[in-house]
Amino acid sequence: MADRLNGKIAVVTGVASGIGQGCAALFAAEGATVIGIDRDQCDLTEEAEVQALFARIGAEHGRIDVLVNAAAFAVFDWLEDLSYAQWKATLTGELDIVFLATRAAWPWLKASGAASVINFASANARHALEGSPALAHCAGKGGVLAMTRQLAMEGAPHNIRANTIAPGFIKTRATTAHLAADPGFEAQVLAKNMLKRLGEPEDIGWCAVWLASDEARFVTGADIAVDAGATAW
Ligand SMILES: NC(=O)c1ccc[n+]([C@@H]2O[C@H](COP(=O)([O-])OP(=O)(O)OC[C@H]3O[C@@H](n4cnc5c(N)ncnc54)[C@H](O)[C@@H]3O)[C@@H](O)[C@H]2O)c1
Asked: What is the pLDDT of residues 97-111, one digit of tens each?
């Protein structure tokens, strides 16, 4: 089957790397028209740039059927080493970035008549992983999780569904630095994973295909763990 997203207009942020890239490739293979956004088109933490970009997309396509908010930036450090500036940068890079894009896309999502917003929470919104200096990231992802439930409620009258995927440890540009910095870290991640491997962007992308498709038409306000079972025990 390669037509699960036929006819859909999908905007994917963070498309130059990792999970966003993986989602965009699968969406295109499943028949969607994919509009990819990354830093070279827009700084998604700059309100005016985001408004202008989505106004252009809306004017060109008339609607947005799927918004995947995969762009993110986070600083990982322990409480005592994390500066206030790094804390704020992480909340901007994980929370404001989702708020700004979703708000700018909202009129065009309403115009769809059957839209899907896919945000990324994290296993870190549910558990503290030993060895991971993820304090600000945990706060950001807990925020995305709660924010998305509210979006589901606000979107329902317009048939805009909003869900989070909560990835476990996925090999991307964002995470390879953690593996390199701490040779023992991979073993700690695998100890939590029931399935004994690290994730690939495609593992997340297939869940996003489903949430974007009409197969998930009754699914909103959900948080779907795609984490090799890491948070199930
Ligand atoms: N990789 C994992 O293990 C993992 C686990 C849980 C959650 N997540 C979440 O999944 C999402 C994708 O993560 P990833 O690992 O693919 O990240 P990544 O760092 O590989 O890719 C993120 C992309 O976002 C872009 N980006 C960042 N800030 C931007 C900005 N201001 N404007 C425009 N583009 C910007 C980057 O250029 C990059 O291409 C994030 O929300 C992340 O928190 C990832």
From this structure: 999 999 999 999 999
Q: Is the CB of 39 under 6 A from ligand 1?
A: yes
Ligand 1 atom nearest to CA at 41: 33
Architecture of domain 9-226: 3-Layer(aba) Sandwich (3.40)
pLDDT tens profile 14-46: 999 999 999 999 999 999 999 999 999 999 999
3-class DSSP state for residue 61? Answer: helix
The count of other CB atoms within 10 Å of the CB of residue 63 is 17
Contact 39, 84 (CB under 8 A): no
CA angle 199, 205, 208 (to 5 degrees): 130
Look up residue 44 and give its DSSP letter.
T
